[in-house]
Amino acid sequence: MNIVVAQSGGPTCAINASLLGVFKGALKSKEIDIVFGSLNGIEGIINDDMIILNDYIRTYMDMESLRQTPSTLLNSCRYKLPDINDDIEVYDNIMNTLKRRGIGAFFYIGGNDSMDTVNKISEYFTQQDCDIKVIGIPKTIDNDLTCTDHTPGYGSAAKYVATTVQEIVRDCSVYSINSVTIVEIMGRDTGWLTASASVLRANGEIAPHLIYLPEARFSVQSFLSDIRRVQQSRRAVVIAVSEGIELDPNDIPEEIRNNTCDNFGHRYLSGVGKCLENIVRREIKCKVRSIELNIMQRCSSHLSSKTDIEESEQIGTAAVYAALSGLSGKVMVFERVSNNPYTVVISNVDASEVANKVRYFPPEWINAQGNDVTEKAIEYILPLIQGEQDIHYINGIPLHFKLGN
Asked: CA Rg, the chain, in Å?
């Protein structure tokens, strides 16, 4: 039989490692012939827009460069499948396309919405008595999928965040004047990535001095009080704040709210750092800047975690074995056995247990004041950022694999 793999949602440093894992798992199987790649996620199957990956990934160096290439080789999409009862024709089209290509298994690498696609398609195939297997492979820097200890992509993003914050701390510490630096970190609904800045404490760092996550209630007045308290012993205050924290407009001075925050409404998905910068400048009157890490958090493969990349490839290969064993409608997951030594096993759960669900940062890992995380968080995150990839370079720049080559 043939198989097809697709990638969806936001890019990461590890999603191509999972793609490589699927490809290598297929090469090891006598049951699999062609490995198709669906361009732009499920849209590529709907539109029958696929490529034969065997024609592109031909050498050892192709595999090595693909593993270290960030983002999605096959492009991505944000397409949400309709309910079967609302539009069965799109499901008929998917099934007919896969059958026409001789495809016996479909692997979807993505996050919450992608697992919804896995769940819907597998349910439709069951209704139609279609034997095509459907397996989900998790991916997201947000680390917010249920039923898995962590998600591929999170460890590398966490390593980048911690490293960058450490460099910011060094830069901010050289001046004799009081300063506040606010680092805005990705996290629409959850604070997993922002919390990763805390692992600097394992190396004796005190900064970031304050950490704010969406899971804890945020108060502007408490935020300002926290800064003033830290300033009593520190000239340079470094703060990690999630883009998803919710500011109460009534808690913000009107002139700042009108001039800075109106565009963001009640939910600050980008720009909360700049808003807080203006508040601190007005209320505390010290040197202040905000830094939005933006997409670098998910695409900086030169700082990827070896643990993350290796696990991402392994879970892709495990997905192939799961399909060959007859499983369908499953999502591959990690189960942590121990922290020290760090040990995980790969298993699977029903896609319905993962689809459209969010795993929030544990409230018991947030301190009582809501402005920091506990040692438990550091113990959890630290193993995921271990190890460095042996990056291949060309002309002094990391080598990336591109389909055009």
From this structure: 23
> How many Cβ atoms sit within 10 Å of the Cβ of residue 147?
19
**Nearest Cα residue to 158 out of 141, 180, 138, 175:** 141
Domain 2-153+301-357+387-398 sits in CATH at 3.40.50.450
pLDDT, average across residues 298-302: 92
Residue 267's pLDDT is 42
Q: What pLDDT shows up at residue 264?
A: 34
Which structure tokens are listed for 299?
């695409």
Amino acid at 151: T
Integer CA distances (angstroms), 181 to 249, 282, 285, in order = 22, 15, 13
The alpha helices in 40-179, defined as continuous H runs, are: 42-46, 60-67, 88-100, 112-127, 154-172
**Exposed e or buried b per residue across 292-317, where buried means at least 16 C-beta atoms within 10 angstroms of its C-beta:** bbeeebbbbbebbbbbbbbbbbbbbb
Q: What span, in angstroms and rounded, lies between the C-alpha atoms of 390 and 201?
A: 26
Catalytic (active site) residue 149 = no
Asked whether the beta carbons of 80 and 116 are under 8 A apart, the reply is yes
Q: What is the pLDDT of residue 250?
A: 74
CA of residue 302 relative to chain centroid, distance: 16
Per the residue annotation, which of 113, 116, 142, 144 is the catalytic one? 142
Query: Do 2-153+301-357+387-398 and 156-299 have matching folds?
Result: yes
**What are the C-alpha distances in Å from 357 to residues 46, 86, 114, 148, 247?**
25, 22, 11, 12, 24
Give the residue-averaged pLDDT of 64-82: 94
